[in-house]
Design the sequence.
């Protein structure tokens, strides 16, 4: 019995006989010699069958090979140029595959999304998933190094945390209705009063009827919350965090980013500190760039692109008007029209990457805001308790994983930044019937 190996380890087995199970992702023959490109999830390699070194029965089996069938080969590992290939002595087809739907020709996006479960096998999608996994690793790594405690936030929620218009409701037995969480923030605030620096990292849901290249119905968000941090200290943390994740990911995943055709130079220069401008100066910039710009509203995709174009690096916009931001954001004691909030806009038109703020820690002001936002006070009793029993200054932010992955990979749309995207306008997700 030959030793079972993975493609990524072939270099360790040069000149040895090995066994490998893998899918066939390309094949061609020129009569006396046949080539397979094999993929086992750890990499790809070429396997060569020829009349001299391959058993005759195995050689004849080549005619039954089809795209994405599963094979087992017994082979010798040989160095070939800069890589390693397999000189096959025996070939077995373990599992057939007929008429694999994703051929080499270009397919439309809808077709690929219908076949997302198979599309994931392509080289490009595998590269994205590896980058995503690395980004997730460095997100945890950053907060663990900074002595944050990871706290899991609940998914079923009695009420909105980010605004009632984008809630997904769920039947809750006979008597009631609950909602899928839009953010873990409110519960992180409770955890922060117990553990000081905490973060959650999990799926969040927004019933937003937006078919843009930045919106998902279900996305992953990392949300740190820190006791005794001002919004300014929080921006400093956010920029160190983004730099850390970007720099480590591009260092460790250069091969994958090359497959994606990403211009790494644009990412290498992502170094903190990032520019920080007030909402008011952002509006002044936009007025010069767009005749039809009106201030006082949240920025749209075009505004965010124009701002990121101006700076060419991530830029913080802070001090948004309080009436366009969430109920929990603390108002500025110098100007009660403003909130101590900030967004971080990604370069290259990738839009809002981070949203954060100092939290309202004054019980009366918070009660007023809950009413003003038409939220039901009874659902926030527990949240208000945090202001009743030792209210503390605290701040935090949320970063959308898919937006970060989209930017790092240089993708056109967030749908490729998550393994199984849930998108507005697709009433079914995976192919049916
Ligand atoms: O700005 P948002 O809505 O902030 C919050 O949810 C806060 N409670 C976070 C906090 O302070 N703990 O969302 C934060 C980030 C955005 O900047 C964006 O990156 C991402 O989440 N995001 C989305 N990503 C994909 N699809 C969507 N529909 C998104 N909505 C927000
Ligand atoms: Mg936001």
Sequence:
């Amino acid at each position: 019995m030959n030793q079972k190996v993975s493609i990524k380890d072939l270099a360790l087995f040069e000149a040895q006989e090995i066994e490998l199970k893998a899918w066939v992702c390309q094949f061609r023959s020129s009569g006396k010699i046949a080539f397979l490109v094999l993929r086992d999830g750890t990499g790809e390699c070429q396997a060569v069958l020829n009349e001299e070194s391959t058993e005759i029965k195995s050689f004849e089996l080549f005619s039954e090979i089809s795209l994405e069938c599963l094979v087992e080969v017994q082979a010798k590992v040989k160095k070939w140029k800069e890589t390693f290939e397999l000189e096959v002595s025996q070939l077995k087809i373990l599992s057939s595959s007929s008429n694999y739907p994703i051929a080499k020709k270009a397919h439309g996006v809808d077709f690929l999304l219908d076949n997302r479960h198979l599309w994931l096998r392509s080289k490009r999608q595998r590269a994205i998933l590896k980058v995503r996994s690395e980004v997730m690793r460095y997100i945890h790594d950053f907060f663990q190094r900074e002595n944050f405690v990871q706290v899991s936030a609940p998914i079923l929620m009695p009420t909105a945390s980010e605004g009632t218009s984008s809630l997904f409701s769920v039947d809750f037995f006979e008597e009631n209705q609950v909602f899928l969480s839009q953010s873990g923030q409110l519960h992180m605030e409770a955890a922060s009063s117990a553990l000081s620096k905490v973060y959650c990292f999990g799926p969040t849901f927004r019933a937003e009827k937006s078919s843009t290249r930045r919106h998902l119905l279900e996305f992953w968000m990392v949300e740190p919350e820190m006791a005794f941090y001002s919004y300014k200290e929080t921006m400093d943390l956010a920029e160190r965090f983004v730099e850390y994740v970007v720099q480590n990911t591009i260092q460790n995943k250069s091969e994958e980013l090359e497959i994606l055709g990403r211009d790494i130079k644009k990412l290498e220069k992502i170094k903190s500190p990032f520019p920080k401008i007030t909402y008011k100066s952002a509006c002044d910039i936009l007025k010069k760039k767009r005749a039809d710009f009106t201030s006082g509203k949240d920025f749209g995709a075009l505004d965010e692109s124009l701002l990121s174009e101006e700076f060419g690096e991530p830029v913080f916009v802070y001090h948004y008007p309080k009436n366009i931001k969430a109920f929990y954001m603390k108002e500025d004691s110098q100007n009660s029209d403003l909130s101590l909030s900030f967004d971080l806009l990604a370069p290259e038109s990738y839009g809002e990457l981070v949203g954060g703020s100092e939290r309202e820690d004054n019980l009366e002001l918070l009660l007023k805001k809950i009413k003003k936002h038409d939220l039901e006070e009874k659902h926030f009793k527990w949240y208000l308790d945090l202001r009743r029993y030792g209210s503390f200054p605290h701040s935090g932010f949320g970063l959308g994983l898919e937006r970060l992955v989209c930017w790092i990979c240089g993708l056109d749309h967030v749908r490729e930044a998550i393994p199984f995207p849930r998108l507005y306008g697709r009433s079914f997700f995976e192919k049916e019937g």
The chain has a mean pLDDT of 96.
